Amino acid sequence: MASRYFTQLLIAFSLMTVLLALPVSAQNAKQTYRVAINKTSYPYHFLNKEQKADGMMVELWQLWANKQNVQLEFVVLNWQQTIKQVQEGELDIHAGIFKSTERAKHLDFSMTFFNQSRHLFLHHSIAHIKNISQLTPYAVGVVDGSSHAISIKSKYPNLTLRSFSNRNALYSAAMEGEILMMAGVEKLSKNFSEYELLSQQFPAFAKVIYDTGEYSAAVAKGESQLLDFIKQGMDKISDQEKLTIKRKWLINDKSENVITFSYSNNQMPFSSTSVAGNAQGFFIELWQIWAKENDQDIEFILSDSNESTQTDKSLADIYITNVTSEKNSPESVLGPVIYSIDYGLFLSNNMNKMLHISEIDNKNIGVVSSPSLVKDIQNKANSASIINFDNYEAMFAAAERGELDVIAGQSDIVENYLIKYKLQSIYSKFNGYVFKRDIHAVLSRVNPKLSQLIAEGFGESILDDLATLEKKWHLDKSSAFFKRQLAVLALTEPEAQWVKDNNVVKFGITKNWIPVEFIDKYGEVKGINPDIFQLMSSRLNIKVDYVVYESFNELYQALLAGDIDVIGSVVATPERKKEVLFTDSYWSMPWVILHPRELGKQLNLADFSGKTLAIAKGYYLISIIRKNFPLIDLRLVDDNEEGLLAIQKGIVDGYIDSLSSGTELLKRESLVSLSMSVLEEVDEDGNHLAVNKSLPMLVNILNKAVLSISDLDSQEIYEKWFDINIETGLDKNVVLRVALQVGALITIIIIIIMVWNRRLYLEIKNRKKLEKKMQYMATHDDLTGLANRVLLKDRLNSAISFHQRQKLLLAVLFIDLDGFKDINDTYGHDVGDELLIEVATRLTGCVRESDTVVRFGGDEFVLLLTGLHYQDEAAYVADKVLKLIQQPIKLPEVTATIGCSIGIAMFPDDGDSDNELLKIADSLMYDVKAAGKNHYAFNRKDDSAV
Length: 946
Prior knowledge:
It is built from 32 helices and 42 strands. Strand 8 (139-143), helix 5 (147-155) and strand 9 form a beta-alpha-beta unit. The radius of gyration is 38 Å and the shape is flat.
C-alpha cells in the first residue's frame, strides 16, 4: 500500500517537474483559440464562395495550430468589429493586420510576418498617372475601419477620401464609376462576384504604391504570454513552408513546375506592361526564348515600380533586373551575367561643342539613382552638380522645365524618353562617354540551382535568336551584347579554360608614342595599339587592364619581369625571341627619318654619315645602324617628344621613328620646317604582340585574334589615325611660328587669309542663323506660333514608329471652329486673327508638354496626343477642349462665343499612317458638324461616341 502511494506521489512529482519546465505560454495554453478574420481582406483572410474562412493567413494559422497542437475557431466580421472584439478580449487573436501608431494604443502586435505594400488602384482612364500629387482631383475609396484612411491622411493630406462599409461596397461603387481610385494591398479580391470586369476597369499595372509597413497578428493589450505562445508556434514553421503559402496567394496560378519572373515597369525597351496588361520588352522576350530552348513553363508578374528592390518579397524565382537600381535583397543571389548595358550622357544644345566629359563645368547632370554611374561621372567631371531622381519620369519632367544641362542614364531608355517627351531636338547623345554595367539574373535563395540551369540555357544554340531579338529592339547598335558574342572566336577547351581563369590581361603601353599608343590630355588611353587590342579582346571575350610606362625601355623591362602580360608594336628580332614570346604580325610599318627641310628630300641613312640622329631607347634598329653605319652618331632619347625637341634645338640632325609616329609629328609641325624620308635600306618591319615567356597559352589565343583582323578592320583603324582634317581658320600659335620662319611677306598674306576667314566665319554664322529662322518658319504657323502641317507630318510619323514599338495608343483630334466665319466676316480679319490666337492659347492649355498642337489651316486645328493607354483619355481631352472653347472670348470689338466640332482617330485601330489618321479624323469631324456640332466622335458606333 505504501509502495503504491509512493509510486503515485513520484508520478505526480514528475508531472509537476515537467510542467514547471514548460514555457509559461505553454502552461497557460488553451485548447481552442478564437481568431478574428475579415470578410473581404483578400488575399490575406476572407470568406470564400463556400462561406468558409480562407486566405494566406488562414492557412498560416492552421499550420501554426498543428504545430502547437491546439484548435482554432475563425470568427468572420467586418474590419471595425475584428479590431474591437480583439481589443476587448472577446476574441483571442487578430489573424493579420497592418501595424500603425494609432492601433498600437489599443493592441499589442506579434512578430512581423512580412512587409506589406499598400497601393492606390487606378481606373484605366487615369492609369498613365504615376505621381500621387497629380491624383488630387480624384477621391480615394477606402473601407471603414481600415488603416488606409489613417495612412493616406497622414502621408497625403491633399487627397480626398470616400469611405465604404466593406470592400464589396467599395468595388461596386468603382464598377458604377463613382470613384476612379481605391486603396488596397497586393491585388483585387478574386472573391468579388464581378472580379473579371473589375480587373479590366482597374488593370494590374495601373497601381501606385503609397506606403509600406509591417504586417503581423494582434492581441489585446497586456497579453504577453499569448504573444510568446504565438511566437513559439511560428518559429516551428519553416521558411519553406511560409514561402509556399505566401506564393500560393500572392502569385496568380503558381504551380510547382512554373518558373516565375518578376519584372519592372516603364523601362522600355527592356521591360514594361502593354495596354492589355501583358509583360513586354527585350528582357521579357529574352527569357521566353530561354524558356522555349529549355522546355520550361514561365510566367511574369509585375513588381512594384516605386520600390527600390524587386526581391524583398521572395515571391519570384527570377527577378528581371531593374536597370535603374543596383540594390540587391538579402533574400536574393546574383546569378550568371545574361546581358550588358551601356549608360551614356545626353547634352543639351548649349553644350554641343564639348569634347570630353571633364569639360562639364558647373552644369546640372540629372541621373536616375545609380551609384556606380554617379561615381564614374563624379570621377571624370568633379565640378559638375549631380541631381539624383527616383525615376525617369521625374528626371524628364525636370528636363522639360529646362533644369538639366545633361541627362545621364541607360542609353536606350533615355532615347525612348526623349522621343516620348519630344526632347530629341534638345538633347543629343555624347559619343565621348560610355559606362557599361553587367546585368545578372537575380535569383531567389530558395532555388539556387536555377543558376546552373540559366548558365547552361544561354548556350550557342540560341545565340542567333538572341542576336536577332537584339536587332528587333534596336539594341544591336548600342549594347550589342549578343552581336559581340557571335563574333567571339572559337577556342579549344584548354584555351577557353585559360580565358575563364585569367579573364583580365595586363597590356603595357608607353605614355607618349603618338599615334601608336599614348595618354591623351584627359588621361585616357588612345592610339593604334589600344584600338587593335580592344578589337582582339572583344573577339576573345577577355578584359584589358592598361599599365602605362614612361618609355619603351621601361615597358620592355616590365614585360621581362612579368609585371605586364603583353605589349604591342615589337619587332621580333632573334635576340628578343630568346627573352619573350611573339604572336604573328598584326601591323606593318616602314621606318622614317624626320629632318630639317633644308637637308634635302628622300634622304637615306648614308646621307647622315658624320651627322647625329636621335632614336628612342630600346629600338632594335640601334644595333643595325651601329653595325652598318658606324659613322652616324646615335643619341638615345626616351620618346618622340624628346627626339623632336632635339631637332628643334639643333642638337641632332634627324630623328628616327615609325611612319605612324613621324606622320603625327609632321602634322603638329604643320609641314613647314621639317621633312620626312622613308628609310628604304631598312626592311619594313612587322609589328608583333610580345608576350611574357610564362604565358604560351596566351600566345595561342592572341594569334587567333590576330588572324581574325581583316583588311577592312585595319583600314578603319588606319583611316582613324592617319586622316588629316582640313579646317577653316588658322591657329594663332601656328601663324606666329610660321611668321618667324618665313618672313614678313608671307605674314601679310596670312593676315589677309585670316581676315578673309573671319569674314567667312561671320557669313557662315549669319547663314546658320537665317537657316534656323527659315526652318522655324517652314514648320510653324506665322500667326499663332503653333506647329503647322509640315511639322505635324514629321511628328506624327515619328510617333507612329515609337507607338508601334511600345504598343501604345495615340490620338489625332481634328478640330473645326463653329461660328468663326460669322465673326470673321462681321468684324474683319484682324478680329478673326485675335480669336485664332486666343483659341491657340486655350488648346495649348488642354494638353501635356509631350503633345502637339497644330494649326492645320484657316480655323482648323489638330491635336496629337501620344502615350495613351485607353481611348477614354482622348475623350477626356476632347471634352476639356469643348468646354474651354465654349467659354466667352474677349476681343477688341466684341466678346465672342464659339464652339467646335471634333473628330478623333486612334492609332492603331483607325490606321497606321499619317494620311489615314488625318483623313479619318477629318471625316469624323464633318460627321459631327452634320449631327449638330459642338461635340466629338470616334470611328465606332458605341458608347464611346458622344
